């Protein structure tokens, strides 16, 4: 399936300039230092790493919020360079993002109906009645009810809000969805519901996900391919089974070793060590 | 005699819509040298119980318990003065957000010293020496230089180490850690958990870990209490909890772990709800 890559990234770099004072020179911080990968249509690439490894910068570049310093990004066959050409309405419709914090990513003064209709209002010429129908249909699709249309975000739980954020992101029928830690702030059982919802939506709309996470058990569950980032570099990149069964880079091994394991054998081993 | 013994603890909050019962008759016992994990999702009352022990709940909360004793002394009838001598000294607590729990206006050296000033009779120079010793114990490099750092100059993991240093400053008999690693990266989480367990093993204190993460439970606990919506679902030692969970809710929680996924879909707690909403605690014990 490698011929059908919806997202092609080659040697992507992003530098931030940190302003110096009167006497100090400005410093350059390289957040992403040359990353290359492909994502095939309808599959999930998981990007794993700790805070500060550049995974959110990568998300910002892919969603065309930030320009890249160097390298190329190609989405659905179209090269992207927002520093030179800006972003067209059409490109905006292809990529959408879901953020980590469902409490911070919804406007508290906007009703859910308006939240869902806004992308259509801004990016399409759809008449109001059709926008409303689309929003109501989407509410059902993500497991909410039509009566939620007129409610405000504070009336929803964290899991419901994340459903709303996901609904908003697929209103424009995007091809590529960037999910920046979408389940990190959620309880275990709610996390399971959201992961199920994402799997359903992927199947229904043939969506491609770039799933950013630090939780390896979630990654192992959802990903087709995995990329591990460490200080702006991709230290490991391969299919899920390659990466999990045979991690090559020492950082990946550290990461696996640090992840708490909830299986009976590791508990037995720990208790034996403790008793000794 | 257990270190901490709580029987039938009920906590109610006054709200505009009438009293809200956050905790409905829970029991905990912790012995010296034991690690108890309280696990549950948000709204399960896991933090409220420990805040009640610490006396940190707001005035709108009504706390009733058949017994709430620390080393045999009844916490409910202690005078505020006696209570202050126990809380912070013999029982101390670490919170989830290390950066938010430290005062941004004072250096970390001052903040750790403050604990010692309140609870011990050490002189100024003895306190300074003890602070350095504590920072060393929690694994902060160059403690002498770090004394004069402000919280914003340290990383989240280092701030959590400072919080732990403050909590263990007076060699407490019981340490309560409320989601101590939730805000941290996994590699840092591993370091902090290892540190807590090492300190616990060295000093033989009791440790209560409040968490929602089954992985953390598996890596730290001796005994586990599972809570759901203010009620205790199951209490078991860690191995039997993971090996053969008795309560349907525990089973649901464990099967919702992505690493335990068997089919295409993750079972959610909702799939099991009908089973345990009606199941009384006794039926599963």
TrEMBL record, chain A:
<keyword id="KW-0813">Transport</keyword>
<keyword id="KW-0547">Nucleotide-binding</keyword>
<comment type="similarity">
    <text>Belongs to the ABC transporter superfamily.</text>
</comment>
<dbReference type="GO" id="GO:0015833">
    <property type="term" value="P:peptide transport"/>
</dbReference>
<dbReference type="InterPro" id="IPR003439">
    <property type="entry name" value="ABC_transporter-like_ATP-bd"/>
</dbReference>
<dbReference type="InterPro" id="IPR017871">
    <property type="entry name" value="ABC_transporter-like_CS"/>
</dbReference>
<dbReference type="Pfam" id="PF00005">
    <property type="entry name" value="ABC_tran"/>
</dbReference>
<dbReference type="GO" id="GO:0016887">
    <property type="term" value="F:ATP hydrolysis activity"/>
</dbReference>
<dbReference type="InterPro" id="IPR050319">
    <property type="entry name" value="ABC_transp_ATP-bind"/>
</dbReference>
<dbReference type="GO" id="GO:0005886">
    <property type="term" value="C:plasma membrane"/>
</dbReference>
<dbReference type="GO" id="GO:0055085">
    <property type="term" value="P:transmembrane transport"/>
</dbReference>
<dbReference type="InterPro" id="IPR027417">
    <property type="entry name" value="P-loop_NTPase"/>
</dbReference>
<dbReference type="GO" id="GO:0005524">
    <property type="term" value="F:ATP binding"/>
</dbReference>
<protein>
    <submittedName>
        <fullName>Dipeptide ABC transporter ATP-binding protein</fullName>
    </submittedName>
</protein>
<keyword id="KW-0067">ATP-binding</keyword>
<dbReference type="InterPro" id="IPR013563">
    <property type="entry name" value="Oligopep_ABC_C"/>
</dbReference>
<dbReference type="InterPro" id="IPR003593">
    <property type="entry name" value="AAA+_ATPase"/>
</dbReference>
<dbReference type="Pfam" id="PF08352">
    <property type="entry name" value="oligo_HPY"/>
</dbReference>
<feature type="domain" description="ABC transporter">
    <location>
        <begin position="7"/>
        <end position="256"/>
    </location>
</feature>
TrEMBL record, chain B:
<feature type="domain" description="ABC transporter">
    <location>
        <begin position="4"/>
        <end position="254"/>
    </location>
</feature>
<dbReference type="Pfam" id="PF00005">
    <property type="entry name" value="ABC_tran"/>
</dbReference>
<dbReference type="InterPro" id="IPR017871">
    <property type="entry name" value="ABC_transporter-like_CS"/>
</dbReference>
<keyword id="KW-0547">Nucleotide-binding</keyword>
<dbReference type="GO" id="GO:0005524">
    <property type="term" value="F:ATP binding"/>
</dbReference>
<keyword id="KW-0813">Transport</keyword>
<dbReference type="InterPro" id="IPR013563">
    <property type="entry name" value="Oligopep_ABC_C"/>
</dbReference>
<dbReference type="GO" id="GO:0005886">
    <property type="term" value="C:plasma membrane"/>
</dbReference>
<keyword id="KW-0067">ATP-binding</keyword>
<dbReference type="InterPro" id="IPR003593">
    <property type="entry name" value="AAA+_ATPase"/>
</dbReference>
<dbReference type="InterPro" id="IPR003439">
    <property type="entry name" value="ABC_transporter-like_ATP-bd"/>
</dbReference>
<dbReference type="GO" id="GO:0015833">
    <property type="term" value="P:peptide transport"/>
</dbReference>
<keyword id="KW-1003">Cell membrane</keyword>
<dbReference type="InterPro" id="IPR050388">
    <property type="entry name" value="ABC_Ni/Peptide_Import"/>
</dbReference>
<keyword id="KW-0472">Membrane</keyword>
<dbReference type="GO" id="GO:0016887">
    <property type="term" value="F:ATP hydrolysis activity"/>
</dbReference>
<dbReference type="Pfam" id="PF08352">
    <property type="entry name" value="oligo_HPY"/>
</dbReference>
<comment type="similarity">
    <text>Belongs to the ABC transporter superfamily.</text>
</comment>
<dbReference type="InterPro" id="IPR027417">
    <property type="entry name" value="P-loop_NTPase"/>
</dbReference>
<protein>
    <submittedName>
        <fullName>ABC transporter ATP-binding protein</fullName>
    </submittedName>
</protein>
<dbReference type="GO" id="GO:0055085">
    <property type="term" value="P:transmembrane transport"/>
</dbReference>
């Amino acid at each position: 399936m490698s011929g059908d890559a919806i997202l092609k990234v080659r040697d992507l770099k992003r530098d931030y300039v940190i302003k110096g004072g009167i006497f100090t020179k400005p410093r350059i911080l390289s957040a992403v230092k040359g990353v290359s990968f492909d994502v095939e249509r309808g599959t999930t690439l998981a990007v794993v790493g700790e805070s500060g490894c550049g995974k959110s910068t990568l998300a910002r570049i892919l969603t065309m919020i930030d320009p890249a310093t160097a390298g190329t990004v190609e989405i659905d066959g179209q090269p992207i360079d927002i520093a030179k050409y800006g972003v067209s309405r059409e490109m905006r419709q292809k990529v959408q993002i879901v953020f980590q914090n469902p409490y911070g990513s919804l406007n508290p003064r906007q009703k859910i109906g308006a939240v869902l209709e806004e992308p259509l209002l801004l990016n399409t010429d759809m008449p109001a009645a059709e926008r409303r129908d689309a929003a109501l249909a989407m509410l059902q699709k993500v497991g909410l009810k039509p009566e939620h249309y007129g409610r405000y975000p504070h009336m929803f739980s964290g899991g419901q809000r994340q459903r709303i954020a996901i609904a908003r992101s697929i209103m424009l029928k995007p091809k590529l969805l960037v999910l920046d830690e979408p389940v990190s702030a959620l309880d275990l059982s709610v996390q399971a519901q959201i992961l199920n919802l994402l799997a359903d939506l992927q199947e229904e709309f043939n969506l491609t996900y770039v799933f950013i996470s630090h939780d390896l058990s979630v990654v192992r569950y959802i990903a087709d391919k995995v990329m591990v980032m460490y200080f702006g570099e991709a230290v490991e990149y391969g299919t899920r089974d390659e990466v999990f069964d045979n991690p090559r880079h020492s950082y990946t091994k550290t990461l696996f070793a640090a992840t708490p394991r909830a299986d009976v054998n590791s508990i037995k081993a720990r208790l034996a060590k403790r008793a000794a | 005699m257990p270190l901490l013994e709580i029987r039938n603890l009920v906590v109610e909050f006054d709200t505009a819509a009438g009293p809200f019962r956050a905790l409905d008759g829970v029991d905990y016992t912790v012995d010296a040298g034991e690690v108890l994990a309280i696990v549950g999702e948000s709204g399960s009352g896991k933090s409220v119980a420990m805040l009640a022990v610490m006396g940190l709940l707001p005035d709108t909360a009504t706390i009733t318990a058949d017994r709430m004793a620390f080393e045999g002394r009844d916490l409910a009838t202690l005078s505020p003065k006696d209570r202050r001598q126990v809380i912070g000294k013999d029982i101390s607590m670490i919170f989830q957000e290390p950066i938010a729990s430290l005062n941004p206006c004072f250096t970390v050296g001052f903040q750790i010293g403050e604990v010692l000033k309140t609870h011990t009779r050490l002189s100024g120079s003895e306190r300074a020496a003890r602070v350095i010793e504590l920072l060393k114990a929690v694994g902060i490099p160059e403690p002498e230089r770090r004394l004069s750092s402000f919280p914003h100059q340290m990383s989240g993991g280092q701030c959590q180490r400072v919080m732990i240093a403050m909590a263990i400053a007076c060699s407490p008999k019981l340490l309560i850690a409320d989601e101590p690693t939730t805000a941290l990266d996994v590699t840092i989480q591993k370091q902090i958990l290892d540190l807590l367990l090492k300190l616990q093993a060295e000093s033989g204190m009791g440790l209560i870990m409040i968490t929602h993460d089954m992985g953390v439970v598996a890596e730290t606990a001796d005994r586990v209490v599972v809570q759901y919506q203010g009620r205790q679902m199951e209490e078991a030692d860690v191995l039997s909890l993971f090996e053969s969970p008795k309560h349907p809710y525990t089973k649901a929680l464990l099967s919702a772990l992505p690493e335990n996924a068997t089919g295409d879909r993750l079972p959610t707690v909702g799939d099991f709800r009908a089973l345990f909403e009606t199941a009384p605690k006794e039926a599963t014990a």
